[in-house]
């Protein structure tokens, strides 16, 4: 008896459902949320030691901002993959540029808020952005179906030019 390999559940980013790019996007989202959650804990502890409560607040706001914007971008990617898979790469690249602009403007706006340690906010945001981008690149490298292109030929009659 041979095992049916195509029905096996996905166990990692590299094994996400081959025929369904939405599975790859879900894996990307879950992996990044888990990674950023661990990052938030570590960054908050370090910021707390360095700058006290204001450092923890700044660090958590920074990582939270990255998490919210990344989740929104991944959600948009999931919707796009469901409707028009060939646009996935454009959404990912465009989303990265939009996120960078939002990060910058939010950091500038939060610079005036009292009770937030600004260096902790900026450093935590930068660290979280780098980690989220590494996670995205890792998913790109391990999940070729994330950017699905249907290369199959439709069933039908063979063109007369190829008949012998």
Percent in helix: 55-70%
Outline the low-pLDDT stretches. Answer: 1-18
Q: Count every helix, treating DSSP H or I runs of 4 or more residues as helices.
A: 3
Quaternary state of the chains:
single chain
The assigned structural class equals mainly alpha
Structural shape: elongated
Task: Calculate the mean pLDDT score and round it.
Answer: 79
Core attributes:
68% helix, disordered N terminus, mainly alpha, elongated
Topology:
Blueprint: H1 21-83, H2 88-110, H3 118-142
Model description:
The chain is mostly helical and 164 residues long. It contains 3 helices and no strands. α1 crosses α2 (88-110). The longest helix is centred in the first third of the chain and has 63 residues, at 21-83. The radius of gyration is 21 Å and the shape is elongated. The two termini are 40 Å apart. Mean pLDDT is 79; it is low at 1-18.
């Amino acid at each position: 008896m041979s095992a049916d390999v195509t029905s096996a559940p996905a166990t990692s980013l590299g094994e996400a459902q081959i025929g369904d790019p939405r599975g790859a996007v879900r894996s990307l989202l879950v992996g990044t949320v888990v990674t950023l959650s661990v990052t938030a804990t570590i960054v908050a502890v370090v910021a707390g030691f360095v700058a006290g409560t204001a450092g923890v607040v700044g660090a958590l706001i920074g990582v939270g901002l990255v998490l919210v914007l990344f989740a929104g971008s991944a959600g948009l990617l999931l919707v796009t993959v469901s409707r028009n898979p060939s646009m996935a790469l454009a959404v990912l690249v465009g989303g990265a540029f939009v996120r960078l602009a939002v990060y910058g403007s939010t950091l500038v706006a939060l610079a005036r808020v009292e009770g937030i340690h600004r260096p902790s906010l900026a450093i935590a945001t930068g660290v979280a952005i780098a980690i989220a981008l590494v996670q995205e690149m890792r998913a790109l490298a391990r999940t070729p179906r994330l950017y699905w292109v249907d290369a199959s030929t439709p069933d039908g009659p063979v063109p007369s030019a190829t008949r012998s």
